[in-house]
Amino acid sequence: MRSCGIKSYVRRSGRMSDAQRQAYETLRSPYAVPFSPTFLNYEALFRSIQPLIIEIGFGMGVATAQIAQDNPQINYLGIEVHRPGIGRLLREIESRGLLNLRIIEADAVEVIQSMIPDHTVQGFHVFFPDPWPKKRHHKRRLISRPFTDLLARKLHSGGYCYLVTDWADYGEWALRELAATDHLVNPHGGFAPPKSWRPKTAFERKGLAQGHGIYEIWCEAVQ
């Protein structure tokens, strides 16, 4: 399979709290899935047959845990490489008793290429990805073709991609890239209204307090 040529992250150092480190060391086995270039068996992973939503880059994961708790009829898979955030989300999974949320610590591009069967995903969440604001770095932006083509191929008909950013330029960029992606349509024709079920993150609240705009994009898959 041809690589998309980008990574979903840049690995940055981050100090883990003692609680995050303990969770990372003790809770990975029950709740995290090691990367393997073989398709996942969703029923074996979650021990249930339910729609699957994948979140790319969940940060500290508190909003991710809340969405999963609010929607027990849906399975969620979070992909992240930031270990403090992984540790925090592992704690949330354990403390909330979430049976419908699991984690993969790996590059999301590789995971989606190698572990996710085509036409099996109900939705992709990408909340506040790195905007790579400098023009010379735009090629590193995650929401770019051919990665968006890969996402479209993994969605089943009627599935969706949901992007949220606080960078207007990135939002406009993503609108163009998604509009050029076969089998995705934007029912709003531009930015979407906010989804009431998406919790605000600490990062988002801080940005709003600083006067940042929030730009949401919702595209749906048609096969």
What does this structure look like?
Helix 1 (18-31) packs across helix 4 and helix 3 runs parallel beside helix 4. Helices cover 35% and strands 20% of the residues. The protein is of the alpha/beta class and 223 residues long. It has an eight-stranded mixed β-sheet, sandwiched between helices. Strand 5 (121-127), helix 6 (147-154) and strand 6 (155-165) form a beta-alpha-beta unit. It has eight helices and eight strands, in the order αβαβαβαβαβαβαβαβ. The chain has a single domain, classed as 3-Layer(aba) Sandwich (Rossmann fold). It has helices at 18-31, 42-46, 62-70, 83-96, 108-115, 147-154, 168-179, 202-209; strands at 32-33, 52-56, 75-80, 101-105, 121-127, 155-165, 184-185, 215-221. The mean pLDDT is 93.
The mean pLDDT is 93
CATH architecture: 3-Layer(aba) Sandwich
User: What is the 3D form?
Assistant: globular
Q: Which H/E pattern describes the elements?
A: HEHEHEHEHEHEHEHE
How would you summarize this macromolecular structure in one to three sentences?
With 223 residues, the protein is an alpha/beta fold. It is built from eight helices and eight strands; from the N terminus they run αβαβαβαβαβαβαβαβ.
Give the SSE map.
Elements: H1 18-31, E1 32-33, H2 42-46, E2 52-56, H3 62-70, E3 75-80, H4 83-96, E4 101-105, H5 108-115, E5 121-127, H6 147-154, E6 155-165, H7 168-179, E7 184-185, H8 202-209, E8 215-221
Parallel strand pairs: 1-4, 2-3, 2-5, 3-4, 5-6
Antiparallel strand pairs: 6-8, 7-8
Name a few traits of the molecule.
8 helices; alpha/beta; Rossmann fold; 8-stranded mixed beta sheet; 8 strands; 223 residues; single chain
